Amino acid sequence: MTELIETIVKPLVDYPDEVVVTKSMNEGLVTYSLSVHKNDMGKVIGKHGRTAKSIRSVVNAAGANRNERIHLEIV
């Protein structure tokens, strides 16, 4: 799942080397924290959060195939 998030986000940003995804698990919920360069934050969030919502939708759909509850945080 980490690779999926990186594959989606890296083409969107100006500093792809600074894209970091960390994973933590807590009682059946898998949380992925995405951190990017501060200048790329707006590109990842998008206008009115549309890009972030789209990324979360794709990640949640992939998690549904694995029967996992997934939460994506953008740090």
Automatic annotation (TrEMBL):
The residue range of the signal peptide is: none
Q: Which GO terms describe its biological process?
A: cell wall organization; peptidoglycan biosynthetic process; regulation of cell shape
Question: Chaperone as a keyword?
Answer: yes
Gene Ontology cellular component list: cytoplasm
CDD domains linked: KH-II_YlqC-like (cd22533)
Coiled-coil features, chain-numbered ranges: none
What family does the database annotate? Belongs to the KhpA RNA-binding protein family.
Cited function: A probable RNA chaperone. Forms a complex with KhpB which binds to cellular RNA and controls its expression. Plays a role in peptidoglycan (PG) homeostasis and cell length regulation.
Q: What is this protein identified as?
A: RNA-binding protein KhpA
Q: What gene is this protein translated from? A: khpA
